[in-house]
Write a structure and sequence with these properties.
Length: 508
């Protein structure tokens, strides 16, 4: 290999000792001089390996309860010296500074301490100083030093030590440096975000990620950065695509409102629900959801709030679908659904995911809070003389939740806790309503007695008039138009119940 270095000395200082033993053993076998600190030195010595303690080089003990251990010119000079620079080498001799070729270091578990609910003092003490400085120094001087900044790289390090007898190429050193700066930048971002309570800046850092086959279309490159294993166990199927992930995200958001409720099933296509129903049995909920639009359901994403039983699985098995998401699968149901090898089966662990929504816009980013308001009965203000019935209120809230999770402008028509049709992503609310009515008629639904939900106010009474002529008997909308009264008056004159929530649910 060209432009190689031969590891002759190493500084090891880690918080987590797991996985360190075989590396220390191999370094010892290669005759590498090992420098270390505190508990790490004790651990390596317990393996029967000789260690030079950093204090013997610096002539300073660890001070301030361990806050200062490695922060010394004799340590950083040993790391940062340029081997090809004669002046650097003279200064090392003059000040008796040993050169260090390999730095193995990790960082205090700051994020873990925050996540576990640690006290402010506990969190502050997990802000690493010496470790982050060692990483920066060693990675900066990758031309002469190998920097290993996390145990995730131990396997590779050990393999290279074994295969190359302590010799590292410039490409390998640069790889480790890149990984090290990834570690340090992520750590700093996490600390900043802990202190940032007013969104003064946007700091994004995600460690896990992989390249997708492509983006929305084959000519677009696509990546996902996140940890899907926190949310799901993938039980079957092909690799998730960019579009799969968008639909899965929409499905989870939609189903959040039904967690812990009666059996509910939803079918989504292009981020919008094309079928959704609540019933006493899961198989009945699926059948009702599918009936909402059996054409759009082809190739869709299915999600439910209950474990899937064999009866429901048999129905699903007859449909070509991309993804099935559920909190569990009965053994026989799973066996049946897995018989189609490309069908993606995801067992959902939790619905907890981002509460901030971020998207690129122009030459920057838009950031907003996630819409976590679920319309409920306490919010409802009856604007008409006719009060909605208990069944209508249930249907209105059911439809409103679908509205919230559908591309605006949108109108949702529902009856008997079943999505009959929706008009999605239209440039006018009238067009959305006409689309929904036409779709409901296409699939043979009787709209007499159905309810209508709108994601935003009606600027004119035309929507309620069209809905009334189609058979709609109750309406839910946020209100807020200067012409609300026109829609209210029409409803009063035609015995339509109208409730207002005061909350708009635009989804652009």
């Amino acid at each position: 290999m060209e432009n190689t270095i031969h590891i002759k000395s190493a500084l090891i200082s880690v918080f987590d000792k797991n996985g360190l033993d075989p590396i220390a053993d191999k370094l010892h076998a290669l005759g590498v001089k090992i420098y270390s600190t505190g508990g790490t030195a004790d651990h390596i010595e317990s393996l029967g390996i000789e260690v030079i303690r950093v204090e013997s080089i610096t002539d300073y003990p660890s001070i301030l309860s361990g806050r200062v251990k490695t922060l010394h010119p004799k340590v950083f000079g040993g790391i940062l010296n340029r081997r090809s620079n004669d002046n650097d080498q003279k200064e090392l001799q003059n000040y008796e500074i040993p050169s260090i070729d390999l730095v193995i270091v990790d960082l205090y578990p700051f994020e873990e301490t925050v996540a576990s609910g640690g006290t402010e003092q506990e969190i502050i003490e997990k802000i690493d100083i010496g470790g982050i400085a060692l990483i920066r120094a060693a990675a900066k001087n990758y031309t002469d030093v190998v920097c290993v900044a996390s145990k995730s790289e131990y396997k590779l390090l050990l393999s290279l030590l074994k295969d190359q007898n302590g010799v590292f190429s410039i490409e390998q050193r640069k790889y480790f440096a890149k990984h090290s700066f990834n570690i340090s930048s992520h750590y700093d971002s996490a600390i900043f975000n802990y202190f940032d309570d007013d969104s003064s800046a946007l700091k994004l850092s995600v460690q896990k990620g992989h390249q997708l086959r492509y983006g929305e279309n084959p000519h677009q490159e696509g990546f996902f950065f996140g940890d899907l294993e926190q949310l799901f166990d993938k039980l079957n199927g092909k690799e998730l695509s960019y579009n799969n992930l968008l639909d899965i995200d929409a499905a989870i958001n939609l189903m959040e409102s039904y967690e812990g409720g009666r059996p509910t099933f939803a079918i989504l296509k292009h981020n919008n629900a094309c079928g959704l129903a609540t019933r006493e049995k899961l198989s009945e909920a699926y059948a009702a959801a599918l009936a909402g639009d059996p054409i759009s359901a082809f190739g869709g994403v299915l999600i439910t709030n209950r474990p899937i039983d064999l009866e429901t699985a048999r129905q699903i098995h007859e449909l070509f679908c991309e993804v099935v998401i559920a909190p569990g699968f009965d053994e026989k149901a799973l066996t049946l659904l897995k018989s189609k090898k490309n069908r993606i089966l995801l067992m959902q662990k939790t619905s907890t995911h981002n509460v901030k929504l971020i998207r690129s816009c122009l030459n920057g980013y838009l950031v907003q809070d996630k819409d976590q308001v679920n319309d409920n009965e306490k919010m409802l203000q009856v604007a008409t003389s006719r009060q909605p019935t208990a069944d209508e209120i249930e249907d209105l809230l059911f439809a409103s939740n679908i509205c919230k999770n559908t591309k605006s402008n949108t109108i949702v028509l529902a009856k008997g806790l079943q999505l009959l049709a929706s008009g999605t992503g239209q440039t006018s609310r009238v067009d959305a309503l006409k689309q929904a009515i036409k779709k409901a008629e296409t699939f043979g639904f009787d709209l007499d007695g159905a309810v209508m939900a709108s994601d935003a106010f009606f600027p004119f009474p035309d929507c309620v008039e069209i809905a009334h002529k189609a058979g709609i008997k109750a309406v839910i909308q946020p209100g807020g138009s200067i012409k609300d009264q026109l829609s209210i008056d029409y409803c009063k004159s035609n015995e339509i119940a109208m409730v207002m929530t005061g909350v708009r649910h635009f989804k652009h």
